[in-house]
Design a protein that fits this description.
Layout (H helix, E strand, L loop, with lengths): L5 H5 L10 E5 L3 H13 L6 E6 H6 L3 H6 L9 E6 L8 H9 L7 E5 L7 H7 L4 E5 L5 H14 L2 E2 L2 H10 L4 H15 L7 E2 L2 H7 L3 H4 L2 H8 L6 H10 L4 H23 L4 H6 L10 H10 L2 H19 L5 H19 L1
Parallel strand pairs: 1-4, 1-5, 2-3, 3-4, 6-7
């Protein structure tokens, strides 16, 4: 089955029983997670949910197929949510077993921010008649404004174009954070499907997210931009406001995947600024300058090594009994120094 666009999956009203596995990948983690949650929701409120990880697939390649064939003891429906870290190679054998089995009855919704369109996993899915993959790219500003207005309407809110643009700026294009903010505003204004409320700039200012505390883009740009002198303050601030280390590692991995994709075009002869400014780049307009500078610093070999080290660090952070925090600080410091030397 060929890859589809995320918009096609957003329009479905039920899960296709012929599709055993839906894989969502790409640099826009917010769209990916939002779409995954929607697909899981289509299984029904009473459906039993089972969460699995790629490390479990690596340890037991037969687990996914076995769980997909198992009936729920507590509900009439069951759905499996698979979180994939790294390139997805750890899950290759497990997915092959899932697609080969004849008695799978539970759909699998998988996400992998670091999985690329050229990965073995995606190629396997594209060659199957019972699986589908979708690549989630960062929408441009115009699309984000439309998404904001549509999401507001679902909450019983009327959001004008100017206010929608302000909200997009407040959340730095983060769709997941945008939806949480709209939920908060709807609660504040007592809005609902039968109680439409107009959102003003004052409402956004009063309840808007403090994105300087939540947004990790500055952390990414300091590390990948080789700004060594700013690194200690950045790490201290991230710790002070409670930004999770795993969140920073995943954000760095998403940016590294994005750089790898864009770097392929640069290696083919395109100028970094031209590649980044293209509508198809998926780079949020506020980040274009930083990403362009990073493309000058990080070549394909460095990016590949970076992605490998980020994956190792994420595994260490998830494992018990490891010095995850220390390894994280060392890795980010190494990244910044390497970038500084390559500038």
């Amino acid at each position: 089955m060929k890859s589809v666009k995320p918009a096609e999956l957003e329009r479905v009203s039920r899960l296709d029983p012929a599709v055993r596995l839906t894989l969502l990948i790409g640099p826009d983690e917010a769209t990916m997670e939002t779409l995954a949650a929607r697909l899981v929701g289509l299984a029904g409120k009473e459906a039993e949910r089972l969460d699995l990880t790629s490390s479990q697939m690596n340890q037991d390649p037969s687990l996914l197929a076995a769980e997909a064939a198992s009936m729920s003891l507590f509900s009439s429906a069951r759905i499996i949510r698979l979180e994939i870290s790294g390139s997805g190679d750890d899950c290759l054998a497990a997915v092959e077993a899932l697609l080969a089995t004849e008695n799978a009855i539970n759909p699998v919704i998988a996400t992998g921010a670091s999985v690329t369109a050229k990965s073995k996993l995606v190629k396997l899915i594209e060659g199957s008649s019972s699986a589908v993959a979708a690549i989630c790219y960062q929408p441009d500003r115009r699309a984000l404004v439309g998404i904001a207005m549509s999401a507001a309407e679902q909450q019983g809110l009327r959001l004008g174009n100017a206010e929608a643009q302000l909200l997009v700026d407040l959340v730095s294009g983060d769709q997941a954070l945008m939806r949480r903010e709209l939920e908060k505003i709807a609660l504040y204004l007592d809005a609902g499907p039968d109680r439409q409320r107009q959102v003003t700039a004052a409402d956004l200012a009063a309840l808007g997210a403090a994105t300087h505390e939540e947004d990790v883009s500055e952390c990414i740009n300091i590390a990948l931009g080789g700004k060594v002198r700013e690194l200690p303050a950045m790490l201290a601030q991230a710790a002070a406001v409670g930004v999770a280390e795993i969140r920073l590692i995943r954000a760095l991995a998403i940016r590294a995947t994005q750089l790898a994709r864009l770097r392929a075009e640069v290696d083919a002869g395109a100028h970094p600024a031209t590649v980044v400014s293209a509508r198809s780049s998926g780079v949020f307009w506020k980040e274009q300058s930083a990403v362009t500078a990073q493309l000058h610093i990080w070549d394909s070999v460095r990016i590949a090594r970076l992605m490998s080290r980020l994956l190792d660090c994420e595994r260490a952070l998830k494992a018990s009994g490891t010095a995850g925090a220390v390894l994280f600080r060392k890795l980010v410091t190494d990244i910044a120094h390497q970038a500084a030397r390559a500038r």
